[in-house]
Amino acid sequence: MGTMKAKVATKLKVRPVNSSELTKPNETIDVPVGKTYGFDKFEPADNGHLKVTLAANSGVYYVYPPHWDGLTPAQIVSKQQAEALFGNTITDPQLQDLNSCLVRYKITTAPRLRHFLSQIAHESGGLQYTEELADGSDYEGRDDLGNVNAGDGPKYKGAGVIQLTGRANYQAFSKAIADPKVMDGVSYVAAKYPFTSAGFWWDNNQMNALCDSGATVEQVTLRVNGGYNGLEDRQHYYQKACGIFA
Questions:
Q1: What is the C-alpha separation between 18 and 210, in angstroms, rounded?
Q2: What is the secondary structure of the chain as a DSSP string?
């Protein structure tokens, strides 16, 4: 998929932390200036690192992107575009997750972008809310959500801009993105994956195919909402999106 080249003497790491914290044998691989590696994919990780899957089953490592050429994450939506649509500030980690989500779930054409972004703009109140306001107690004991343990309701209440809810859905999301920390609960997902969690739902419900078919805002809203709640506001955001993403 790509090639990365070390700009400075650096390291491949087994965890996304400072090299000084990796003191055990085989926790790092020293990389000289100019060394190249083929990779299959890369994605954002903790502490400003990237998680890189090397080609030919050569392993998965964490790297610090300023030390490498060839690892610039694709930016589908700029900070200016996002803030113009949402009407609120988007943080750098949120913007990184948004673009990671768009690439991961192939939300990259104008129709897909317009519908996805306008729907999440409405659902999140213009990016004001990435965590359900209610305390989640109403979800306690909900077998249909997989909430089988005491405290699952609040722990796995709605997270992200399309609220991921319930232990079972968190577990499916955790497995899909290979991050067991998702099971830490709502605060982690809301902070780390506000958009990727929404993209997970979008992908599972074949929303790209619906957008590709020329769906209207009404048709997309019906699948997202199960009805037409907030339709006027969703249409408002969709018109804004049409002006931003030609």
A1: 44
A2: -EEEEESSSEEEESSSS-GGG--STTSEEEE-TT-EEEEEEEEE-GGG-EEEEESTT--EEEE-GGGEES-PPP-SS-HHHHHHHHSS---HHHHHHHHHHHHHTT--SHHHHHHHHHHHHHHTTTTT-SB-SS-SGGGTT-GGGT--STTHHHHTS-BTTTTB-SHHHHHHHHHHHT-GGGGG-HHHHHHH-TTHHHHHHHHHTTHHHHHHTT--HHHHHHHHHSS-TTHHHHHHHHHHHHHH--
Q: What is the pTM of this model?
A: 0.75
- Residue 12 and residue 28 in contact, taking contact as beta carbons nearer than 8 Å: yes
Q: Residue 3's CB: how many other CB atoms inside 10 A?
A: 12
pLDDT in tens, 152-186: 999 999 999 999 999 999 999 999 988 999 999 99
CA–CA separation, 156 vs 162, rounded Å?
14
pLDDT tens for 105-124 read 989 899 999 999 999 999 99
Give the Cα separation of 60 and 54 in Å (integer): 6
> From edge to edge, which strands make up the β-sheet containing 2-6?
28-31, 10-13, 60-63, 50-54, 36-44, 2-6, 68-69
Answer whether residue 33 shows pLDDT above 90.
yes
Residue 111: phi and psi, rounded to 5, are -60, -40
